Amino acid sequence: MSLQKSSDYNLKKGDLILIAVILSITGIAALLIMQQKRGDQVIITSGEAKETYSLNESRTIRVSCESGGYNTVVIRNGMVWVEEADCKNQICVNHKPVSKNHESIVCIPHKLFIDVKSSRNNDIDN
Amino acid sequence: MIRFLAKYRHQTTAIIIIALIAALTYLAIQSKNVRMSEYDNDTYSGLAFGTSVKKTIYMDSASARQEVSNSIDELLKDLDERISYRNPSSEIASINKAYAVDGTVTFSPDIKEYLSREIEICNETEGAFSPCILPLSMLWGIEDGYSKPPSQAEIDETLLHIDPSDIEIVDDGVIFHNDGMKIDLGAVGKGIAADEVMDELSRQKVPGAIVSIGGTIAVYGDKGKGRPWHVGVQDPRGEDGKVLGVLEVDGGNVVSTSGDYEKYFEIGGKRYHHIFDPKTGYPADNGLISVTICTNDGFLSDALSTACFVMGLDKGLQYAEDKGVDAIFVTAEKKVYITKSLKRRFNIRNDEYELAKK
Description:
The complex is a heterodimer.
Chain A: H1 2-38, E1 41-46, E2 49-54, E3 59-64, E4 70-76, E5 79-85, E6 104-107, E7 112-117
Chain B: H1 2-7, H2 9-33, E1 41-48, E2 51-58, H3 62-83, H4 91-97, E3 104-105, H5 109-124, H6 134-140, H7 152-159, E4 167-170, E5 173-176, H8 189-203, E6 208-213, E7 216-221, E8 229-234, E9 243-249, E10 253-259, E11 264-267, E12 270-273, E13 288-295, H9 298-311, H10 313-323, E14 326-331, E15 335-338, E16 346-348, E17 354-355
Helix pairs in contact in B: 3-8, 8-9, 9-10
């Protein structure tokens, strides 16, 4: 009887250790994923100036270019796009929002580059 | 502690085994996705050749990647200065400014070679591709932002000075048998650049890279996974960056696209774009909205995308098959035609388009 009880107790303690180990593995994995996501970046280059922003924090950035024009860049919901610009061809404004690794938007007249470094892999290479 | 381990040795063994399995799985995933097979990489965006240039370089050393990117920038700048008709000190600009009719003009060997190849493609395409269309594109001025068609009289006058049969290649140079002619390498410039970029990548022993020069994409080597690259083809009627489909490409190829969506103006719903038919003097108007060519020769890739766009679907597709290149033709009705070689290597990823057969 007493032996039986002891065996019950043993099993419980083993279970606890097992649960603790599984929980800590899950916790570490979650931390790693969060860290990776926090590393998602938007790099905006305008002429010589270069700024890095998080892709996961919403914000609106007005970028003034050296020739005097501007581009309004919006980061929201893990995506980035050009909302408005006074460049002559409007190619940057007509570009689809980008979010995946290696995606970019360029405004040639304003020498503006928006590059994404993201944990979201892109299955298209160019 | 030892007594504790002895007491719970089964549990301890189980935990150690689980931990080992977890660690091995983690390492396996890591090595598969990041280390052992795919090289570290960086993307560099910039301007060159009057267009945007984007380089993604796969190479383990970060400083080496940056160096390769810099040397490509340097190379593109030098090449543009050498072959651009817009650079007043280039050989081509000085010829365009003045030459003696029926006299022999000498060129650097490489420029003469480019011109000869252009003339060869001109002959093969019965003049759909022209090495001397510059007076016509300057008259229309679409690349310089003009937004009104020239008069018929102006077009007719210009047509007199863009006949490729007035150019003769001789041993020691080139002879122009007419006045007012101008040559340019605009329709092949990005292809030449792609070829030179691939040579540089090979010299620098880069494992893999993908370099876009405007719409011309040099696909080089291997990312480390031993699998083909995936090149997105632009939807000619969609937002910039939206794809029509995805093309599987092996390293060593150049993908070029010519479309009516790149530079154009519209009047009364009619689109006037920058790819001219040398015979009519007007933008090519045959129902095609884009042509993509993929082959291992950048010059040919770039030239054929323009040539096939002007030739139209029937003749163009046949010519592409004859030349043994991969080609994708898109019509205004959003029908997509591909060469036989692409059957298993091109996937449409846009509901508005459908694959069609001739």
